[in-house]
Amino acid sequence: MKKSDDYHMNVGGASMILLLVVFALTVFAALSVRASFHEMKLAEKTRDAVQEYYTMDKAATEKLAAIKKAYYDYYGSEHYEPFTFDGAKVYSAGSGISYIYVEYQVKSAVSDKSLNVTLRFSKEPEPKIMQWALSEGEHGDYGKGNGGDIWNGDIIIED
């Protein structure tokens, strides 16, 4: 009987498929790690923004309580000067029923954001909160590309 030397083990195709599978899994693993890293950074940024807001919200609520107490103490006694409060702008408005508006701002300690609050006092037992809004900078900073050009109310008709 004759020995056959025709048989050769064919490992080239299986090795190539194995290499391609390992390469694809490596690429997907790297992309997954990168996506996880960016998600972690986004979560940290969101956490910091929420903490910053609630810190300002707490300070604004404490100031609201102090203003309410001062307002009701002021109107519970005789007074000759108009109502004032340190750190707040107070002005009168209204026709028929007089309203007193109190505006104040709580600035963030870590960024240029602020919480702007406007209250309206009248003869009701509680003030009405007209505004409780977060803004960037003192009046919002639209020059940084986060708002674009703002319409100033002028109507321009071109021929």
Question: What is the β-strand count?
Answer: 4
Number of domains: 1
The biggest beta sheet reads:
4 strands, antiparallel
The structural class is alpha+beta
Shape: elongated
Q: Strand-and-helix sequence, N→C?
A: HEEEE
Q: What is the typical, i.e. mean, pLDDT?
A: 82
Order of strands, widest sheet? 1-2-3-4
Radius of gyration: 33 Å
- The proportion of residues in beta strands is 15-25%
How many helices?
Answer: 1
End-to-end separation in angstroms reads 105 Å
**Spans of at least 5 consecutive residues with low confidence:** 138-146
The portion of residues assigned to helices is: 40-55%
Describe the structure.
The protein has 159 residues and is α+β, with helices and mostly antiparallel strands. It has one domain. Helices cover 40% and strands 20% of the residues. It contains one helix and four strands, in the order αββββ. The chain has one helix spanning 12-75, and strands at 89-93, 99-107, 113-121, 128-136. The protein has a four-stranded antiparallel beta sheet with strand order 1-2-3-4. Strand 2 and strand 3 (113-121) form a beta hairpin. The longest helix has 64 residues, at 12-75.
